[in-house]
Every structure is written in C-alpha cells, then in structure tokens.
Amino acid sequence: MLLLHILSLLATALPALATFPTKLLYQSPTEFFENIAVRPNGKLLITAVTSPTLFTIDPAASNATLDAVYTFPNGTGMNGIAEYAPNVYAVVVSKLNDTTRTAELGSVTVWRIALTTRHPVVKRMAVLPDSKLLNGLSPVPGVPHLVLGADTYGGIVYEFNMRTGATRIALQTPVIIGINGLHVRHGALYLTNSLAKTLMRVPLTMNGSAVTFSGPFEVLGGIQSTAPVASFDDFTVDTAGRAWVATLPGALTLFTPHANGTWSQENAAGDPAGGKSVFAQPTSAAFGRKGKKDGRNLYVVTHGGQLVRVDTGCEE
Ligand SMILES: *[C@@H]1O[C@H](CO)[C@@H](O)[C@H](O)[C@H]1NC(C)=O
Ligand SMILES: *[C@@H]1O[C@H](CO)[C@@H](O)[C@H](O)[C@H]1NC(C)=O
Ligand SMILES: *[C@@H]1O[C@H](CO)[C@@H](O)[C@H](O)[C@H]1NC(C)=O
Ligand SMILES: *[C@@H]1O[C@H](CO)[C@@H](O)[C@H](O)[C@H]1NC(C)=O
Ligand SMILES: *[C@@H]1O[C@H](CO)[C@@H](O)[C@H](O)[C@H]1NC(C)=O
C-alpha cells in the first residue's frame, strides 16, 4: 500500500527572491496553449486545447510565427507532448470541451509523431475508452519506447509502449486524482495535482520493461497564493533537480531541494495573484536546447495563448 507522507510542513517559504526577467515572444489571438516540447534543434513544439494541430515556433526568430506541423484526425484539441526518442514524440489528441475541461468519452487517443524525416510520420498508438482527460506525458529516461500519461479524473498513471501500442494502468490511487503534469527524473515520478494544489513525487523502479511505484508519496510543496483559482499546472525539472511549475493564475513557482531533505518554494516570475502578470494562466514550461545560453531560457506557454521566455540565468 502506498502511504501519503506529508513533508509540506518542512517546506520552508523563503523571502521572495528577485524574479527572473521575462519576454513575450508570441501571442496567439485564437489558441489556448497547453503544452510544450523543445526539439533538439531548439525549435518549440506547442499543443493547444483549442486545436488538433501540433504547432511550432522558432523562439530565435526576430518575429516569431506559429506554424502548423501536423493536424490530427478526429480531435478538437491536444494535451501532453513528450519526446521519447530523438525527434519522436508522443502526443494526446481528443475531443475536448474547454469549458468543462473534459474530453468526450472514447475520443482520447495517443499518437506517435516522428519528425526525423522531411514530412511528419504519424501513427495512432492507443485509445483510452474510459478516460475523461489525458493530460501530461513523460518519457522514462533509459527505457526506450515507454511513455507515462496522467489521467486527471481517474487518478491514473498510464504506461504506453510506443512501439507496440500496449497500454497498461501503472498506478491508480485517490492520492493522484487531479494529476496534471508528470515527469520522471532521478528514479522518481514528479507530478502536480491540480485538485490538491501540490507538487509530489513517488519513487519509481523498473520491473523488466514495466514501471512500478514503491511509495511513499512525498508532498514537496503546495499553493501559497490565496487567489481562489490558484493551482499548479505542468512543470519541468532542471539538471539541478529544481522544479519550475506553471502556477495559475499568473506565476512560475520554483521548488528547490536542500541537502537536509527539505524543499523551499518561491515565486520565480509573474504574479501569483494574477493581477498584471506577464503570464495569462501559464500551463507548461520547458528549457531551451540550442546551446549553453539557450539552456537557461525557460519557455512558458499559457492558456492565454502566449509564449513567454524566462531568462533564468540572470536575476532582475
Ligand atoms: C510579424 O509577423 C506578423 C505575422 O506574420 C506580421 O503581421 C507583422 O507585421 C510582423 N512584424 C514585424 C515587425 O515584422
Ligand atoms: C475517425 O473517426 C471515424 C468515425 O468514427 C473512424 O471511422 C476513423 O477510423 C477515425 N480515424 C482515425 C484515424 O482514428
Ligand atoms: C461544453 O460543455 C458545456 C457545459 O456542459 C456545454 O454547454 C457546451 O455546449 C460544451 N461545448 C461543446 C463544444 O461541446
Ligand atoms: C514484476 O513482473 C513480474 C512478471 O510480470 C510479476 O510477476 C511481479 O509481480 C512484478 N513485481 C512487482 C514488484 O511488481
Ligand atoms: C534545511 O536547509 C535549508 C537550506 O539550507 C534551510 O533553509 C532549512 O532551514 C533547513 N531545514 C531544516 C529542517 O533543517
């Protein structure tokens, strides 16, 4: 049995650090952005809940444009995206209702899209007939073809074999009802729970080519803003083990682990209360990959259709 081990009492709230400088790179007049992946060449892949088209933006362009990569059939919107082999991605496509934040039953699908050749090569790999929303996706470092997916309402982590299409429930527990983003790093599954408004992690091990979770869950931190709509969306974990979490309605929260086992959390950019934030409902974040300097650029997408660059290499 998996035990919920609450460490949040140990998480210390530090005085606010100086926030990092931000720059709005692109504003869509129509799309609500949901997730982001960075290609090896530095270009961004962006999903929107309002479109079955996978988009790309070159963040280095002086006047960034939103360009279509591929439009998937039988869907109205997209959620998670994860690169599980070089330039090969898993994506979620479904018929989404953005008001109720649910997908039509039977419409939730996981696709493979390979961008290794001139034209995208796509294949539908899985259908989840019982899912009302498949949200974030993550590769499992060191395990080829394996991708994990977060079923928000089911409180489920699905495991997809992106070579065979084999699909399995890897974890199901009320503790993760509300799961939004998930990322495997350093032998653990990190996840945000939008309902519980927490960042958690649980140890992950391999049993052959299947993931198993040994527990306990650790709560690394939670919402400190009193804004009624405040919650966590998707996030990324950097090489130092820090988590950068898109925080509704308008902020980016940085979680830092300490040698004594505690975590601190602080506002890294934007305004946790929303207000005049540079972010209109941030949904996901990913670091640049085009050289050392770009590696410090954190690209944040928002439900408000923005792409914002956060320069984490220099404090404001
Ligand atoms: C940037 O691109 C948009 C869309 O293509 C165009 O309308 C606009 O004029 C461009 N702005 C500049 C400064 O080039
Ligand atoms: C799209 O939906 C139609 C009607 O349900 C179905 O016949 C078709 O196979 C679907 N196409 C794909 C690629 O899933
Ligand atoms: C989304 O759900 C709401 C509430 O049930 C409904 O009024 C609306 O028509 C739905 N939108 C679509 C596009 O189905
Ligand atoms: C590992 O996999 C084997 C074979 O599928 C199964 O019998 C065993 O129970 C699994 N062990 C754990 C800890 O899940
Ligand atoms: C753990 O380390 C951090 C950073 O040095 C410090 O701020 C915090 O007070 C420590 N917490 C405990 C419980 O020792």
TrEMBL record:
What are the boundaries of the signal sequence? 1-18
Presence of keyword Signal: yes
Does the keyword Methyltransferase feature in the UniProt annotation?
no
Gene3D superfamilies recorded = TolB, C-terminal domain
Keywords attached to this Swiss-Prot or TrEMBL record, sorted alphabetically, are: Signal
Protein name (database record): SMP-30/Gluconolactonase/LRE-like region domain-containing protein
Protein source organism: Mycena belliarum
Q: What is the lineage of its organism?
A: Eukaryota, Fungi, Dikarya, Basidiomycota, Agaricomycotina
